[in-house]
Every structure is written in structure tokens, then in C-alpha cells.
Design goal:
The protein has about 120 residues and is mainly beta. Strands 2, 4, 5, 6, 9, 10 and 11 form a 7-stranded mixed sheet that branches. Strands 1-3-8-7 form a 4-stranded antiparallel sheet, with no helix packed on it.
Length: about 120
């Protein structure tokens, strides 16, 4: 079955960096479009970033563009999210997702598979 295991979250101060990792199994990773989504406290799920199966195309929500970088290593079935210049509003539970079908990135996340998430807290 599909398994997605996120790691790399933690506590960071504003301006610092964190790198999230997600190891995938149970499907052909190199053929899958992958995403990162987040659930801020008291708010709804937000799509953050997506990457094509070959890694050549990347996409970001406006609030993280220029600060976050998504990448993948198909040989290791792993997708990454490098988060720089972190802000308190980046505080959330971050999920790795195998995209399902949908007319938007967020719909694709909801219809796909998620991991259990890794908590990122940005606070001074």
C-alpha cells in the first residue's frame, strides 16, 4: 500500500531554515506527481508546492515562492522541501502527498495519499 513518511520538522526561529524529507513506498514513485501541503493551526489545508514526476517542473503557492524549494530524488523515492527565511505564518503540520486527480493542486492533494505529517513551528 502507499506509504509516505515525512521527517525534518521542528522548531525554528524566524529567518532560519528547515529541510523536510518524505520517503515514499508502495507505488511507482518516479511516475508520480508529488506535493507538499500544510495545515496551519485553526485553519484549513493549504497546498504549498508541487513537482512533476521527472522533477523538471516545480510549482509554488505565492506565499512561499522564492523562499521554499521542492526537489526529488527518484533513485531514493524521496521528495524534499527546503524552507528558507521561515516566518511565523509558516507554522503548520506539513504533509507530503501523492497527487490524485483534481482540477486544482489542493483537490489533487485531497484525492490523493498523504503521510502523517511533520510539525514545523516558527517562533522566536
Amino acid at each position: 500500500q502507499v506509504q509516505l513518511v515525512e521527517s525534518g520538522g521542528g522548531l525554528a526561529q524566524p529567518g532560519e531554515s528547515l529541510r523536510l524529507s518524505c520517503v515514499a513506498s508502495g507505488f511507482t514513485f518516479s511516475s508520480a506527481t508529488m506535493s507538499w501541503a500544510r495545515l496551519p493551526p485553526g485553519q484549513g489545508l493549504e497546498w504549498v508546492s508541487g513537482i512533476s514526476s521527472d522533477g523538471n517542473d516545480t510549482y509554488y503557492t505565492d506565499s512561499v515562492a522564492g523562499r521554499f524549494t521542492i526537489s526529488r530524488d527518484n533513485a531514493k523515492n524521496t521528495v524534499f522541501l527546503q524552507m528558507n527565511s521561515l516566518k511565523p505564518e509558516d507554522t503548520a503540520l506539513y504533509y507530503c502527498a501523492k497527487q490524485g486527480k483534481g482540477s486544482t493542486w489542493l483537490e489533487g492533494v485531497r484525492r490523493g495519499y498523504w503521510g502523517e505529517g511533520t510539525q514545523v513551528t516558527v517562533s522566536s
